Amino acid sequence: MNPTASYDVFDTVVTRTFAHPRDLFVHLGAKLRDQGGQPLEPITFARARWTAELAARKRSRHTEVMLDEI
């Protein structure tokens, strides 16, 4: 019996629309404001979202927090 070597080779490409994942919240704030969903400036919305996530992480015993905790 001949030994067989098997290899899995993958080329992974990660494409992002935003420079940093958190930049999505500025975009979301603009979309929500334009649709009448919230009155804040997009950067103000994003900062509030970042602050809420940080507060949830401080309260949590886990590294990741769920959306309802934020």
Element string (H = helix, E = strand): HH
Radius of gyration: 20 Å
Would you report the number of β strands? 0
- Sheet with the most strands, sense and barrel status: none
Shape: elongated
Helix content: 40-55%
Sequence stretches where pLDDT stays below 50 over 5 or more residues: none
The whole-number mean of residue pLDDT values reads: 87
List the topology elements.
Elements: H1 24-34, H2 42-59
Helix pairs in contact: 1-2
Q: Main traits of this protein?
A:
70 residues, single chain, 2 helices, mainly alpha
Question: Mind explaining what this structure looks like?
Answer:
The protein is an all-alpha fold. The chain has 2 helices and no strands. It has helices at 24-34, 42-59. The longest helix is centred in the last third of the chain and has 18 residues, at 42-59.
Give a quick summary of the entry.
The chain has 70 residues and is an all-alpha fold.
